[in-house]
């Protein structure tokens, strides 16, 4: 890993689009959009500080919110911006600061400290207003497909409960009581089938089936508390293959749901595995939990996503032999890291840093310098 400065983080926000093919960062000078596969800088706008930059797949539409460094970039104003024309399309103004924004092709969701607004994207007609518990971090999760489009929000400030709303049909779907401590991170799989949660304690991650709010997996990250920065499912359209979690410890944790759901290897071996139900033994059994130690700088906020997953199976028996994946990480001190991962039939992980470059030094007319160049 390159020598990364411990000075205040230059990145104010980072987000991947709905299929992880592109990502955006907001800085004190403006915002930038990159192609995930090539690392190429696709667009930049230097007009001041931005605290939110959200993309709509690979389209030219952005939802951007200023960081308040100047009056024209108020954190209370949402701008729908066209990168092709370089012009603002529409603006929405609110009484308090906007803490998060999510989109799909039909819905726009705006998260404030104590409310969530659901809009029809094309007309910006307001469809629903959701009163929430105080949500100072703007914590939310969103599944972008129209068939199972859910929004998850904290349901309590004292325990780890989540409310799930169907934002297409505009109704409350369920409440999930996941942890004893308040929620710190949530993620919905892209197909809306699963939700993963972590609490402020940061030691256990739980995965629930959204349709009936039942717990499917539980994983213990470790014994000591740490701040969870991100949770992200792999991009599978069916059962998610891998769940990734970055934290303040500097390690990235991977939970292999594909292998955990395989009937030949799911249940724990030995005496405990024979008497303890799967949901509990999954917590005790580290068989499907892998750690990339020192994958990111400790204490620096980071955002990790699984951008690609490939399952290798035996053609004769359909037995799962290995899982290969690509993990991309944005560190808020200004770096992009890409790791190549492989988990073999013996459930052994191998990983290597494939690319690394400074997000702030890339220019529009040049490709990023790889592997630690700054």
Number of DSSP strand runs: 28
Global geometry: globular
Tally the helices.
Answer: 3
Radius of gyration: 20 Å
Mean of residue pLDDT?
A: 87
Indicate the percent of residues in helices: under 10%
Roughly how many Å apart are the termini? Answer: 11 Å
Main sheet attributes: strand count, strand direction, barrel closure: 4 strands, antiparallel
Low-confidence stretches: 1-6, 262-285
Spatial arrangement of strands, main beta sheet: 1-2-3-4
Find the structural class using helix and strand composition.
mainly beta
- How much β-strand is present in the residues? over 45%
How would you characterize this protein structure?
- This protein has about 375 residues and is mostly beta strands.
- Helices cover about 5% and strands about 50% of the residues.
- It has 3 helices and 28 strands.
- The chain has helices at about 255-260, 270-275, 280-285; strands spanning about 10-15, 20-25, 30-35, 40-45, 50-55, 60-65, 75-80, 85-95, 100-105, 105-110, 115-120, 125-130, 140, 150-155, 160-165, 170-180, 185-190, 195-200, 205-210, 215-220, 230-235, 240-245, 250-255, 290, 300-315, 320-330, 335-345, 350-360.
- It has a 4-stranded antiparallel beta sheet, with no helix packed on it. Strands 5-6-7-8 form a 4-stranded antiparallel beta sheet, with no helix packed on it. A 4-stranded antiparallel beta sheet has the order 9-10-11-12, with no helix packed on it.
- It starts with 10 loop residues before the first strand and ends in a 16-residue tail after the last strand.
């Amino acid at each position: 890993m390159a020598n990364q400065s411990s000075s205040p983080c230059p990145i104010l926000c980072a987000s991947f689009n709905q299929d992880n093919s592109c990502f955006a960062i907001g800085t004190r000078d403006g915002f930038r959009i990159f192609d995930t596969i090539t690392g190429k800088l696709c667009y930049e706008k230097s007009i001041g500080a931005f605290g939110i930059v959200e993309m709509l797949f690979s389209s030219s539409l952005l939802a951007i919110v200023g960081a308040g460094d100047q009056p024209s970039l108020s954190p209370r104003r949402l701008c729908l911006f066209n990168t092709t024309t370089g012009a603002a399309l529409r603006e929405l103004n609110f009484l308090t600061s906007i803490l998060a924004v999510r989109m799909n092709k039909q819905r726009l969701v705006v998260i404030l400290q104590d409310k969530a607004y659901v809009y029809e994207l094309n007309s910006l007609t307001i469809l629903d207003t959701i009163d929430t518990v105080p949500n100072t971090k703007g914590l939310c999760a969103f599944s972008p497909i129209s068939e199972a489009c859910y929004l998850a929000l904290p349901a309590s400030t004292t325990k780890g409960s989540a409310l799930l709303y169907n934002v297409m049909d505009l109704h409350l779907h369920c409440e999930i009581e996941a942890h004893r401590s308040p929620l710190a991170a949530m993620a919905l799989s892209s197909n809306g089938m699963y939700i993963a949660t972590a609490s402020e304690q940061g030691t256990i991650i739980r995965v629930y089936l959204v349709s009936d709010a039942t717990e499917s997996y539980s994983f213990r990250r470790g014994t000591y508390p740490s701040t969870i920065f991100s949770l992200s499912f792999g991009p599978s359209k069916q059962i998610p293959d891998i769940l990734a979690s970055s934290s303040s410890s500097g390690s990235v944790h991977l939970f292999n749901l594909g292998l955990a759901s395989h009937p030949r290897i799911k249940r724990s071996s030995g005496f405990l595995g024979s008497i303890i139900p799967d949901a509990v033994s999954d917590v005790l059994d580290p068989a499907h939990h892998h750690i990339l130690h020192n994958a990111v700088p400790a204490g620096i906020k980071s955002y990790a996503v699984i951008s690609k997953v490939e399952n290798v199976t035996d053609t004769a028996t359909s037995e799962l032999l290995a899982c290969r994946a690509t993990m991309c990480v944005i560190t808020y001190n200004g770096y992009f890291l890409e790791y190549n991962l492989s988990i073999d039939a013996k459930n052994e992980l191998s990983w290597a840093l494939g690319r690394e470059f400074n997000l702030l030094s890339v220019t529009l007319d040049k490709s990023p310098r790889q592997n630690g160049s700054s």
